[in-house]
Design a protein that fits this description.
132 residues; alpha+beta; Nuclear Transport Factor 2, Chain: A; 3 helices; 51% strand; globular
Length: 132
């Protein structure tokens, strides 16, 4: 890997670590002010909504695993795609999701900032009627 890809991957992992730790101050520094996410629920969320969700008494992740990670740098744009497994608790309810994701980072002032996220849940195949 080259230095740009290494630094982009480090920024991605810093976001992962901050989400797992519920560290909203680190997330505030890593997320671009104009961050947008298209969530599993189909909602469009900005940075403040994410920070609120991971604040006190909010979402707590205990799993954030990534497979098939592809990392590409195009000038000051970084694109990461992969397969993720996330899980944790929210409001005393446990959750687990397996997703395909696209994350876009933008290099601003020499630092990678998390700009955009799109996740699509992978639903396990169900047997066809009459099978199983």
């Amino acid at each position: 890997m080259d230095a740009d890809r290494d630094s982009l991957l480090a920024a991605f992992m810093a976001v992962r670590d901050a989400l797992l730790a519920g560290d909203t101050e680190a997330l505030r520094a890593l997320y671009a002010e104009d961050f947008r996410s298209h969530s599993l629920r189909g909602e469009v969320e900005g940075r403040e909504a994410v920070l609120e969700a991971f604040g006190p008494d909010g979402v707590r992740l205990d799993i954030f695993e990534v497979e098939d990670l592809a990392v590409e740098v195009l000038g000051d744009v970084g694109i990461l795609t992969g397969l993720g497994s996330i899980g944790g608790r929210f409001d005393r309810t446990e959750f687990r999701h397996r997703v395909r994701f696209v994350d876009i980072f933008l290099r601003r002032d020499g630092r990678w900032r998390y700009l955009f996220s799109q996740s699509t849940e992978i639903v396990p195949d169900r047997p066809a009627r009459g099978e199983g």
